[in-house]
Design brief:
about 325 residues, alpha+beta, two-stranded antiparallel ribbon, about 45% helix, Dual oxidase maturation factor 1
Amino acid sequence: MTFYDGIYPFYSLQRSPFIIDISLLVAILVFSVLAVSFIFILPGIRGKSRLFWMFRIIISLFIGGVLVVLNFTGDWAEASVKANATYKSFSNAVVSAEVGLHVGLYGINITLRGEPVSQINETIDYNEIFSWSSSVDEQYGDALERGLPNPILYIAEKFTRNSACGLIFQYRYSGRFASANLWTAFCCWLVANILFSMPVILYAGYMMIATAAFIFFSMASFSTIYNVSQCDFSIGAESLRTDYSHSFWIALATGLLCAVIGLVVVLLDCLFPGRMREAFSVGVDNEEDECHTGECYLNSGFLEGVISDDITQTGNGSLPQQITTLTRL
């Protein structure tokens, strides 16, 4: 029987490792298209306000994009270790590889990459995802049927319901609450952008502060994964322990940015409300729409349409009073 790329012809095609979440890719593309579209519009804005609008649009889209993308990233917490470990069950083969655990809000990724990649006549490069949306026990059973390497099966087994560690409950609920807070922060961001286009700049600042608050709530929710007793992940002679990673620190930076923007907007609106409305091009009336009272000049050509009615009123024991009423036709 012949081989094709190391696979028997009557077997299914070789599975490629998990690379990137499609939802994450879609979110990045949507906000990238919006950013490019607004950049094309900027040349139509005249005057010095062009730079202000460009800065405002880029910062706003950055915050919105981060709030959506953070829901689908898989690196809120990470851990990796290089070790010599048993490759497959019922085998004495030992491989040198880097094992990684990546924790997200919707699941975990377990990676295994050989050093070098080609060992014992195989390419050791795995990236497997186990999602909270479906039963981890079923996914673990499927991984057993596929014959995944021992390090991946060992870590995945720690997140099953029958595991003594009980990690699945804390990790899953922490991720769900963190995601719910991020989506609430995204809604606050949308409301803030709407209010920035209305003569209520002060409330837009309040909504930016609310956005920052919900981002911090999501971080606090995710941090509760460390409230449970830490379960030891022993890979060969090495141990694995997760710590905060890129997405967590990006969320912190975005929350601080929203808080600073909100506080600055609230402070400036209290000190200089007129200039703030002028800067955001809201609440500024045209001179033609304004009504002024005071000295004015009349055109004699329009005086023909003015009717002067003299009404004399007299009262008992009072002086006559003359009231002149001008009616414009």
